[in-house]
Amino acid sequence: MQHIDMNETVISIRDLYKSFGEKHVLEGINLDLHKGENVAVLGRSGTGKSVLIKIIIGLLKPDAGTVKVLGEEVSQLDDVALRALRLKVGFSFQSSALYDSMTVGENLAFPLKRNNREFTPEQIRKTIDIVLDAIGLPETINQLPAELSGGQKKRIGIGRTLILRPEIMLYDEPTAGLDPITSMELNRLINAVKERFNTSSIIITHDLTCAKSVGDKIAVMDDGKFISQGTFDEVFTGNEELIKSFYDYNFIQ
Amino acid sequence: MSSTNDKPDKPIITAKIDGFFLLFYDFSLFVLRFFREAFRPPIEVEEFIHQCYQVGYKSLALVTVTGFITGVVFTEQSRPTLSEFGVTAWLPSLVAIAIVRALAPLIAALICAGKVGSSIGAELASMKVTEQIDAMEVSAINPFRYLVVTRVTATTICLPLLMFYNALVGCMGSYLDVHAHEQTSLISFFDSAFTQVTFLDFSTALIKSVAYGFTIGMVSCYQGFNASQGTMGVGKAANISVVVSMFLIFIEEVIIVHVMNAIR
């Protein structure tokens, strides 16, 4: 099992605020992600979880606060530096966001070719095979995204981010819209990615089972704030009403 | 008049004028970004060739049909008036002047605005709302260079080619009509047709079609790249791409014709 290095922080977020017009989405977020650690950010829909990771990757700009990724302040980076940083951070979209005019192989080759122009076709093919093998879908290489199931699309989306060998993975609702068995397979894949590719991850989810399966630490978010952080046992022994309701709901499910 | 949160609302007309200038400013930044990105390596050659195929080759059939019909119809419509004055011999040169100076650039541009503009607008908008453009961003790929620069360059280069092709097919249509009525040979038709067409006419047509191609590419890419509101936004982007492109093409036509006539 991968060792968590508590002395090395790969993502550090301090006093993060973000609003869209009158709506305050993030209100003073603080979070540390250590090397080798998986942090699951758990919360209901619309609490600002996805906004948080979009700020981490630089797709959105914060109103206030700092986000340091691998020691670099994201909002201060210019385009070139931001692209260099993004090579080290993988982002798996809730919708998978596969390029629908390309086959699975082309989807995987696309970022690889553009970021490693010296790669030969053989090297590209070999890298694609390794990644497809890691996500367990080698037979889909010539298929179009429209021919894949929801779970397969999520796996290919994860594969496309892994092809650049990131140090950090950001997963946006990896199990949303999937049946319990496929969700379980996705959770296993997230843990396998951590072990095989030595990644540190933030997993955004509203699925308690997912958070428990993949998170070394869980941060519960409500109304743009973290109301509890810690291991699963630490968080779910508290008496916070929202946390209890989360647990009860998922237990009933 | 005040809104529910007690902030004074702007009169509708002022808000619309503000909106227009904001849109104009945003579009200008988009155009400037194109020039900034277009000349920086790496150049996306493969995607550029693919777009030239989409814009140029895939529009050939439509351009052929419309060009041919334009040539035939214009000749048919002009003949009675010319024959009244007994100058049907002027028909080839009249048709050639009309086609090269006005019809070919406009028809090729309007066809492209409808076919290519809507396609680019819808494609990019669909990529935007399904987060495919964001996926490029997070994979350290510059989506502007890959999607916008290649498409705008393709429309700017392909439209002049389509325009000259359209002019040629139009003249061929006119020739077949003239040949059917006056038994003129191909050589004498083209000889007569192009005696009145000057280098400036060809240059004007070229300038027009470059401007139209650039406009179609920029407007469609801008609409697609800034689409929102899910699937409704895709339809809206395709629709606005066509309407605004056509509108701007007519405005450019007026400006270029006036400038060229002043030079002439």
Automatic annotation (TrEMBL), chain A:
<feature type="domain" description="ABC transporter">
    <location>
        <begin position="11"/>
        <end position="248"/>
    </location>
</feature>
<dbReference type="Pfam" id="PF00005">
    <property type="entry name" value="ABC_tran"/>
</dbReference>
<dbReference type="GO" id="GO:0005524">
    <property type="term" value="F:ATP binding"/>
</dbReference>
<dbReference type="GO" id="GO:0016887">
    <property type="term" value="F:ATP hydrolysis activity"/>
</dbReference>
<keyword id="KW-0813">Transport</keyword>
<protein>
    <submittedName>
        <fullName>Phospholipid/cholesterol/gamma-HCH transport system ATP-binding protein</fullName>
    </submittedName>
</protein>
<dbReference type="InterPro" id="IPR017871">
    <property type="entry name" value="ABC_transporter-like_CS"/>
</dbReference>
<dbReference type="InterPro" id="IPR027417">
    <property type="entry name" value="P-loop_NTPase"/>
</dbReference>
<keyword id="KW-0547">Nucleotide-binding</keyword>
<dbReference type="InterPro" id="IPR003439">
    <property type="entry name" value="ABC_transporter-like_ATP-bd"/>
</dbReference>
<dbReference type="InterPro" id="IPR003593">
    <property type="entry name" value="AAA+_ATPase"/>
</dbReference>
<keyword id="KW-0067">ATP-binding</keyword>
TrEMBL record, chain B:
<dbReference type="InterPro" id="IPR030802">
    <property type="entry name" value="Permease_MalE"/>
</dbReference>
<feature type="transmembrane region" description="Helical">
    <location>
        <begin position="94"/>
        <end position="113"/>
    </location>
</feature>
<protein>
    <submittedName>
        <fullName>Phospholipid/cholesterol/gamma-HCH transport system permease protein</fullName>
    </submittedName>
</protein>
<feature type="transmembrane region" description="Helical">
    <location>
        <begin position="205"/>
        <end position="225"/>
    </location>
</feature>
<feature type="transmembrane region" description="Helical">
    <location>
        <begin position="146"/>
        <end position="168"/>
    </location>
</feature>
<feature type="transmembrane region" description="Helical">
    <location>
        <begin position="55"/>
        <end position="74"/>
    </location>
</feature>
<keyword id="KW-1133">Transmembrane helix</keyword>
<feature type="transmembrane region" description="Helical">
    <location>
        <begin position="237"/>
        <end position="260"/>
    </location>
</feature>
<keyword id="KW-0472">Membrane</keyword>
<dbReference type="GO" id="GO:0005548">
    <property type="term" value="F:phospholipid transporter activity"/>
</dbReference>
<keyword id="KW-0812">Transmembrane</keyword>
<dbReference type="Pfam" id="PF02405">
    <property type="entry name" value="MlaE"/>
</dbReference>
<dbReference type="GO" id="GO:0043190">
    <property type="term" value="C:ATP-binding cassette (ABC) transporter complex"/>
</dbReference>
<feature type="transmembrane region" description="Helical">
    <location>
        <begin position="12"/>
        <end position="35"/>
    </location>
</feature>
